[in-house]
Amino acid sequence: MLRKYALFVGVAALGALVTSCGGDDTGTPTPSPTSTGTATPTPTPTQGQVDFDLQQDFSTESTNANYAFAYFTPDAGGDETFSGASRLNGNASISLALSPEVVTFAFPDLDDPATFDATDLVSASATVRSYARGSEKLVLELPYDHVLRVSYESQADFTRDTTDGVLRGERTSIFFNRPTVTTDIASDLAYTGSVEVVGGDPGTTLAGVISAPDVTFTIKEADGSVNGTIEIFRDVNGSPELVATLVFQRTTNSAGNVTGGVLDDQETFAGILTDADNNFVGNFAGAISGPNREELFIIFSISGSTDADNDDRVDADDDRRFVGSFIGKR
């Protein structure tokens, strides 16, 4: 099926993000979403083991472990609604220095890194360190020990179609340590953790109504396959409504060749997602992390795939999109 991709546009000078469903009159195109019909490049850390201690200095980089999303609020009043989202390939970096305190975050589509200092510090603990300055925010989240999630939020004046308003964009990158153990996986590995997910129907889905429950993913010893299910829900007047069911698994083509969902020799992976019942297609990528395979993370992205007239093209009015990540520990 041919996929109608919404162009992911960064308003670079303003630090905002949106898809073409709410295009900015002066925005400059930046990376388009990776195709959701095939497995995507796997994430890669660009240096050795890093001690992700939020109470001490560190610096690290990663590649192909990024996603971004945005919400729009009209100036004339009204609810904040989902505007667009994408997974992005490319390099990201994070550095934290405490004396003097400076934290710097670089993302693939940012012309200049986002930098905060001690005067911007809002809170600091062993698991979360957050900064804020005006409409900008930076959060470093360390759920366990070997996978760090960094999110940068910014706002900008924006015009979607002919409606003036404010666009709130967030860019997220994952940083991680590769396993150093060299022995084969001797038994199934189960990782339990939480899911961050955002998205919906642009201009319709309200901010804060999308969620996913905690989940367990299993790496099978027999074939190195990644197995688990993420269910995405929308809150409707206080009741959860199922939006999508994403099954992560080993996939093969008609010739029996593996097309995704299996560990490579670096213990990273990429795969394809299909939810025929709810008309979504997508992809995922991730890695086992930690010296002894203690943790696992996954980044995923799905798009609406409705083809009501059976012309092998996604219907023009199906702009639904979700992105997110899972971080778990065994």
TrEMBL record:
Annotated region (Disordered) at 23-48
Where are stretches of biased composition, namely Low complexity? Answer: 26-41
Presence of keyword Signal: yes
Entry-linked PROSITE patterns = PROKAR_LIPOPROTEIN
- UniProt keyword terms in alphabetical order: Signal
Q: Where is the signal peptide?
A: 1-23
**Protein name in the entry:** Transferrin-binding protein B C-lobe/N-lobe beta barrel domain-containing protein
Protein's organism: Aurantiacibacter zhengii
